[in-house]
Design brief:
Elements lengths: L26 E2 L2 H4 L4 H16 L1 H24 L6 E4 L2 H11 L7 E5 L4 H12 L4 E5 L8 H11 L4 E7 L11 H10 L3 E6 L10 H4 L3 E5 L11 E5 L20 H6 L7 H4 L1 H11 L1 H23 L13 E5 L8 H15 L1 E2 L2 E4 L2 E7 L6 H10 L4
The structure holds pyridoxal-5'-phosphate.
Length: about 400
């Protein structure tokens, strides 16, 4: 497809790809899993690392505390969140584990999530909640899904009189579904149920005001869609939950407030956190609205074009998708994890296309991502590679 195709944006797409370290020749359609770091952010993290090595003691005792505070304040402003309720973690998985570990739930209580839950979070719930005798219920969300009402109805049907916790994804991993989190939080609140939002994919991807959303806990990554160096995540707690939230590793900050506890969990390399302001500057330079317009338009055009070429469909309507979409793959192969992996490997090895293939709801799906370095012809390669003969 030429650059003038639907979804192309002057100055973005392949024109900006050189500002990332991505290798040539790969159609990189999986920003969602691990993100991709701009050169300036990679260099900023490296500069911090050099300062750390130049004088480690001065770095940890004098340089780090104010720099970390500045990074947290910048993140809080971007998320419209109270900085006192925000702590850095390495990634969303670490944040979810900290919240689950600290919950005062007991045998006989129920916790509800959906069947779109991220696999590692499913296991963390089993570990932290199952060992206390808390039952974990997965609400089956219809898929393909038609509208937000179906999601809300599915979750509502799974809530019981003993439900004490709802864990919902802001953007679901296997399906890219953008959950109606505001409505789900309101539903839970009306029943006195606390809510943990797993926003691993949301920062930099969806408009986000943690103040307005008012979840009890919100966990997110900056390294997926916010251009941060990998290993940059956060956990946020509403005022009433702050005293009960601790990192899973207790260290010197214990009892000194959420930020202090998460700031220090032992000696480690904090440079990916310190480079966050550079990532926010990068996004501001490109323009958050321009990024969102490009990524959404590209995702919409690409998903529709691929589904049409394959004669299949997209798993969710456009208003329940952001920068990602899952398109059903036309194949007689059974929907197993092994077949999904084999198809992924074939796309990568034979076609240099990096896209996750996911077995879900009885079918195989290609989950595409649209980031600012993507252009329509990346998706044309995928459409052609799996087009029915
Ligand atoms: C919904 C969801 N939760 C959690 C994670 C885990 O993110 P991380 O590996 O950065 O902890 C992911 C990763 O894709 C995800 O999609």
């Amino acid at each position: 497809m030429p650059e003038a195709a639907p979804g192309a944006t002057p100055g973005l797409g392949h024109a900006i790809r050189g500002r990332f370290l991505l290798e040539d020749g790969v159609a990189f359609l999986n920003n969602g899993s691990y993100g991709a770091t701009p050169r300036v952010v990679f260099d900023a993290a490296l500069d911090w690392r050099r300062r750390m090595e130049a004088e480690p003691v001065r770095f940890f005792t004098r340089t780090l505390p104010p720099a970390l505070e500045a990074a947290r304040t910048a993140l809080a402003a971007r998320l419209d969140a109270d900085p006192q309720g925000l702590g850095f973690v390495d990634n969303a998985t670490t944040g979810v584990n900290a919240v689950l570990a600290g919950l005062a739930l007991e045998a006989g209580d129920d916790a509800v999530t959906t069947d779109h839950v991220y696999g590692a979070v499913r296991l963390a719930m089993r570990h932290w909640l199952g060992r206390r005798g808390v039952r974990v219920i997965e609400a089956p969300v219809p898929y393909p899904v038609a509208d937000a009402d179906q999601v809300v109805a599915a979750v509502a049907a799974a809530l019981t009189g003993r439900t004490r916790l709802l864990v919902i994804d802001h953007v679901a991993s296997p399906t890219a579904l953008v959950m109606p989190v505001g409505r789900l939080i309101a539903l839970a609140r009306s029943r006195g149920i606390r809510v943990l939002v797993d926003g691993a994919h949301a920062p930099g991807h969806l408009p986000l005001s943690l103040r307005a959303l008012a979840a009890d806990w919100y966990v997110g990554n900056c390294h997926k869609w916010m251009f941060a160096a990998r290993g940059c995540g956060f956990v946020y707690a509403a005022p009433a939950e702050r005293a009960g939230l601790h990192p899973t590793v207790i260290s010197h900050g214990y009892g000194q407030g959420l930020a202090a506890e998460f700031d220090w969990t032992g000696t480690r390399d904090p440079c990916h956190w310190l480079a966050l302001p550079e990532a926010l500057r990068f996004a501001a330079e490109i323009g958050p609205a321009r990024i969102a317009d490009h990524n959404r338009a590209l995702r919409a055009a690409a998903a529709a074009a691929i589904a049409s070429r394959w004669g299949t469909g997209v798993g969710a309507p456009p208003d329940l998708l952001g920068f990602m979409a899952a398109i059903r793959i036309p194949t007689p192969l059974a929907a197993t994890a092994e077949n999904a992996q084999a198809l992924h490997d074939r796309l990568y090895d034979d076609h240099r296309i990096q896209v996750p293939v996911i077995a879900f709801a009885g079918a195989l799906w290609a989950r595409i991502s649209a980031q600012i370095f993507n252009a329509p012809d990346d998706y044309e390669r995928l459409a052609a590679a799996l087009a029915p003969a």
